[in-house]
Amino acid sequence: MEETKIKEQMPMTVTETPSVPEGQPSDKAASHHLLNSLLTVIDPFQVFRHHETQDKKNHKPRRLKFTTSRSLEALIFLVCFFAFFGFLAYRMTLPHMLNTFMQTAYQLLLETVFYIMAICVLMGAISKLLTEFGVVRLMENILRPLMKPLYNLPGVAALGAVMTFLSDNPAIISLAKDNNFARYFKKYQLVSLTNFGTAFGMGLVVIAFMTGKGYGSGALVGLMGAIIGSIISTRLMQRFTLKSYPEMDSPVTEAEGSEQNISYKSEGSIFQRFLNAMLDGGKSGVGIGVAIIPGVLCISTIVMMLTFGPAGENGEYLGKAYEGVPVITWLADKVNFIFFWLFGFESGALVSFPITALGAVGAAIGLVPTFITEGIINNNAIAVFTAMGMCWSGYLSTHTAMLDSLGYRKLIGKAIGAHTIGGLCAGVAAHWLWVLLSLIF
């Protein structure tokens, strides 16, 4: 009885809903609900505070709804999009900016993309012939003794280096998934193949392109720089992996297998094998050539418009190809003493090559013809370009997919960090190797 009297004497708060006996009308409850609604209108933060209290009790952080987050993302994108192109239009005028944008992409397609595609087709045919008739195996046997002391990898890894050099980064993944190949590796060594293979990706195409432009000596020095960068990147990746995951110091698989079963020989007569290898290799080269088109036309166009200035004699814009607002050049010139000492770059505009190579090496080499036309390039720059272009080889766009396909997504950050350092070291090594060779010869 006393408890009942106390409850009757206590004032009822607004947030409490009186109990309604079953079968009786709920007029009081409805009135109470209406009062709460009116108070919510007066105090719009009441609902938020209520949910915040509930979240604290349940220890669950509040999250934005999917539609709300997408709307914010769209708003941020639109602000950045219009700010970027608005800045270019303000400096160049809108008609000139649009004309330069389209003319640059068109000229890159005609003058650069088709040239690179022709190289890809020819090099694809040659690489397939080398694979078909055992030259790749011979190169593997020659390089095999160097794998353990340089890269801390089993000798069979040399096959991966040759394959990616002749084609592109993903070639290493098809090998890594083959038990006949993977059984020679420990887990931390297998994941380091992502860095190892990427450092040689599209090497043949890059060297052939630079040599075709008349800078063969610089390209060969760049190859040596890329090898140095690949050693640093691979070793760092292994070190990072073992430090965080010591349990990965164990064999990948105990399954039986033999590297002799890794075969690339087709059936038929020698003439038929020759013809099929040449045509199949050329077809794969077309695939690589087509794959680089978006990177060259989109990335290179934007980079060029942020690298080069107006084409008019008095500094006016004419709407021609390769014009733009030289933001990258202006920023690089402010700290060019660093780039000059590290890479020997005499012009800040050259920094745009390694920046582009982070995403796509095909797009990066698309910048070279314009550098040649501008007269700001030499063999030293070509050596650095080749080293960093080969070593980085668009790793920001490939490392995620490569490690994900191997089932080690948790190591993506470590792989990218190690490869960033490796690429920078490759460029520095190529520059100072060129300086050394220039003093000797």
Verbal overview:
The chain has 441 residues and is mainly alpha-helical. The chain has one domain (112-440). The chain has 22 helices and no strands. The termini are far apart. Mean pLDDT is 82; it is low at 1-35 and 37-57.
Helix and strand topology:
Blueprint: H1 2-9, H2 27-42, H3 45-58, H4 66-92, H5 94-132, H6 135-151, H7 157-166, H8 171-176, H9 179-182, H10 187-198, H11 203-212, H12 216-244, H13 270-291, H14 293-305, H15 327-334, H16 336-343, H17 352-357, H18 361-365, H19 368-374, H20 379-392, H21 395-406, H22 412-440
Summarize the structure.
With 441 residues, the chain is mostly helical.
Largest sheet: none
End-to-end CA span: 109 Å
Mean pLDDT over the full residue set: 82
Annotation field: number of helices: 22
Give the total of domains: 1
Round the Cα radius of gyration to an integer and report it.
31 Å
Strand residue content: under 5%
Unreliable segments (pLDDT under 50, ≥5 consecutive)?
Answer: 1-35, 37-57
Written as H for each helix and E for each strand, in order along the chain, the element string is HHHHHHHHHHHHHHHHHHHHHH
Q: What structural class should be given to the helix and strand makeup?
A: mainly alpha
The backbone outline, from C-alpha atoms, is globular
**Helical fraction:** over 70%
Number of DSSP strand runs: 0
Tags for this model:
single chain; 441 residues; mainly alpha; globular; disordered N terminus
